[in-house]
């Protein structure tokens, strides 16, 4: 069935993004649009219908996505509260959105774990699209910028994560899972060895194997050593986040959301709430809600209602409820 957009809804969004400082914008109508536009195709049609705000990515004959106009983004960022920022991210092409998140990490002192999140929780095609969008937006490859801006012991792991194109089919090897569980164990549990995050075999396994294969490997790790691999990696945050994102994205996202809802955290930590809810609303939000309740004994909707307010709260709740 063909997707169409009512003229009045296009008008509401167009006025909201017109750079008028929010004057006359009906935020309740924006929330209603978030509730009604449940198909990604609706947002795609909005981008294609709104040349005032979006333009091709620079390849006029075979462009890959509709990108936000950079000058408009610079104007809007000075006047947007969290609610309108959420709406901007929600309308943005997913590839562009992830590319901009990656750029924030590398140029604006955002937590590097966002790169791990992008590399380990997106599909191979989604990650490839984000890399293409990064080149179109910034005229550098994502891998090039990671190698330039990240000078830590986890640089090679991050490079492998963001450049991965994993197999996503149903096949996996029991024998390989057992073998590589032992390889990981020897690297992680040997105090005299090179740091696991710098170990080339650890990097190879975590950045090239399919997620299905890795989950089997992690199960065998626990069978062999009596502890889960995420317990064994210790205080190496990059390795912790990598393993958790690959092992159970809903657990990872639940923890990020819970941290973002605390009062005593940094601005970048709080901003993760918008990032996670917007990017996972059409993906695995139901799994995240179930896992959040399992971990914390309370419904995610209740925590969002307590920790946020106004139209920002209503917008978050509408996205959280999309898969019901």
TrEMBL record:
GO terms for cellular component: cytoplasm; plasma membrane. The keyword Repeat applies. InterPro entries: Annexin, Annexin_repeat, Annexin_sf. Keywords: Annexin, Calcium, Calcium/phospholipid-binding, Metal-binding, Repeat. GO terms for molecular function: calcium ion binding; calcium-dependent phospholipid binding; phosphatidylserine binding. The keyword Kinase does not apply. One of its GO terms (biological process) is response to heat. This is Annexin D4. It comes from Dioscorea cayennensis subsp. rotundata (White Guinea yam).
């Amino acid at each position: 069935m063909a997707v169409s957009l009512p003229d009045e809804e296009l008008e509401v969004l167009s006025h909201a993004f017109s750079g008028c400082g929010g004057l006359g914008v009906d935020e309740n109508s924006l929330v209603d649009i978030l509730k009604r536009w449940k198909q990604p195709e609706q947002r795609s049609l909005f981008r294609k219908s709104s040349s005032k705000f979006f333009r091709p990515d620079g390849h006029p004959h075979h462009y890959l996505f509709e990108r936000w106009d950079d000058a408009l983004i610079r104007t809007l960022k000075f006047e947007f509260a969290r609610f309108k920022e959420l709406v901007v991210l929600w309308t943005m092409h997913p590839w562009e959105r992830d590319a901009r998140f990656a750029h924030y990490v590398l140029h604006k002192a955002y937590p590097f774990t966002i790169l791990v999140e992008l590399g380990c929780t997106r599909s191979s095609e989604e990650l490839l699209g984000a890399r293409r969008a990064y080149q179109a937006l910034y005229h550098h490859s994502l891998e090039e910028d990671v190698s330039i801006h990240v000078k830590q012991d986890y640089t090679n792991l991050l490079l492998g994560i963001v450049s991965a194109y994993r197999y996503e089919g149903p096949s996996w090897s029991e024998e390989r899972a057992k073998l590589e569980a032992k390889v990981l164990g020897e690297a992680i549990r040997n105090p005299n060895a090179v740091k696991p995050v710098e170990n080339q075999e650890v990097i190879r396994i975590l950045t090239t194997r399919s997620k299905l294969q890795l989950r089997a490997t992690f199960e065998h790790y626990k069978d062999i050593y009596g502890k889960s691999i995420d317990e064994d990696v210790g205080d190496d945050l990059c390795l912790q986040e990598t393993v958790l994102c690959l092992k159970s994205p809903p657990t990872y996202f639940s923890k990020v959301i819970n941290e973002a809802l605390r009062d005593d955290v940094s601005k970048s930590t709080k901003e993760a709430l918008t990032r996670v809810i917007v990017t996972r609303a059409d993906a695995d939000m139901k799994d995240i809600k179930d896992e959040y309740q399992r971990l914390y004994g309370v419904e995610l909707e209740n925590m969002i209602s307590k920790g946020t307010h106004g139209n920002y709260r209503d917008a978050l709740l509408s996205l959280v409820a999309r898969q019901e």
